[in-house]
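Objective 1b of the project was to move from sequence-level analysis to a structural picture of ligand recognition. The entry below was assembled by the postdoctoral researcher (A.K.) and checked by the PI before modelling. It contains the amino acid sequence of the target and the SMILES of the bound compound, fe (ii) ion.
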Amino acid sequence: MLPNYYQFYCPVKILSGQLAVSNIPFEMTLLGCQRAMVVTDKGVVKAGLIDMVKSAFADSDVKIGRIFDEVPQDSSDKVANRIAKMFKTERCDCFIAVGGGSALDSAKGANIVLSAGSGNILDFQGADKITSDLKPLIAIPTTAGTGSEVTKVAVIYNETTETKMSFVSDKLYPDLAVIDPRMTLTMPPMITAATGMDALTHAVEAYTCIQKNPIDDIYAKTAIDLIRRYLVRATQDGKDTEARMGMANGALFAGIAFSNSMVGMVHALAHALGGVCHVPHGIANAILLPWCLEYNLPKVPEYIAELSGLLGGARAYLEPLEQAEETISLIRNLLKKLNRISSIPEKLRDAKVEEDQLPEAAEAAINDGALVYNPREVSYNDALDVYRKAF
Ligand SMILES: [Fe+2]
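Corresponding predicted holo structure:
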């Protein structure tokens, strides 16, 4: 069924394939740029991934002006300021962010600082506050999960107030997303499983939330199909380039889907667990996804049912409710399989969550913005109940 109204926007050029990184210098010239600033973290450098980027520039007229490799776990306003300062001193004209969500958000944060001139980054918090054009941004993801290479969001930690600030703007879309399977080959099994389940959650929530639309649906379904084919394989054998490529594309499609549809209850509850109990985002989503789908089942049985075939279900003749239950049990089986291969936890108690932390998390969850898009309303008691089931 078509919604009464919807919008779709994804202005990111995508390069996907073996050796895609090698095309970056040419793409930089198309963007009118000559000196790139690479934004990354020490782990990415240690894995040899920056050497791969550097070698792409070996015979090129365009250059890497500076490599900033001190991106912390959570990008912060202070880091964004430092990067912006270096960008100016080194006379760079574009960013290449290499890493997970934090590297990309740090580059986006620095970009906001630069566009603000002498202004304050805090003035641009919230939705659609950035009006000037930003410097070109090239994103090279090294995990297959966040989808931030195709999203218009940046989350920056405010070191003074100790809170996370969200920036949402069409100006924050990267210009180029470079999906090269060589960049994800060194990801360990547990991170592969967790980031892959984050991508699956993006696709499932995009397909079942209230802002779903027919274009996002196509991306979400393709993402789910790819993740079902390749997540177990990539977790089992990190050097399986076909599986790595499949997962990198799955995460990319899921990112395009949720960037337009938004997410829902799983993310709200996962964000809260991250804040209160420091559970990594992908692990929290992996554990919560089946329980939240069960909670949403009475409201959107058809949407959940429509995903069973993509997850490997063969019984298309079932009633919607029965078929939706099959979808949920297929996701549970996937998590079980991943647990056997990578030890990703299946329960919150195994993810270092204490039962007495759940009320505080439930309180935080019901104030999370992602709940706005969930198909069923969630009260404090509902959130607590889902946490207890997943505990
Ligand atoms: Fe996520």
